[in-house]
Amino acid sequence: MNKKDEKTIRTDRHYLDKAKAVDSGFSRTLEISRDTFIGEITSKQHAYLEVLDEKNTRFELGEAEAIIGRTPECDIQLPAGNVSRTHARITFRNEEYQIEDLESTNGIYVNGIKIEKCILRNHDLLDIGGVKILFNEEKIRQEP
Description:
The protein is 3% helix and 50% strand.
């Protein structure tokens, strides 16, 4: 995980010598890079979906988009009657997984709440057309 391009706003006099002061008219605000106070952090990420049924099938997630649905053309096929042909899409952006409903008939529920689009967190319980799926994500910090 490389976050060199992110910028953080701090209002602390200690950082005046390390950053450029910006006068907003109300207070002093400083713009400093993330490296100034935490340095570079790298991590390895591993995520998968686990269908909670007799088989406990696992679907590994990578950085590529994954379509969930009933048809064989889908990346993750769920052969259940209440699952739409193309039901949902999982994308990986900004180091987070996100699920989006593709205008399915029965919708998507994350932890019991119907959603249209949602960022997934470790151990979120998905309900896609009555199929229960557990989202699992592991982040392991790597030393540089």
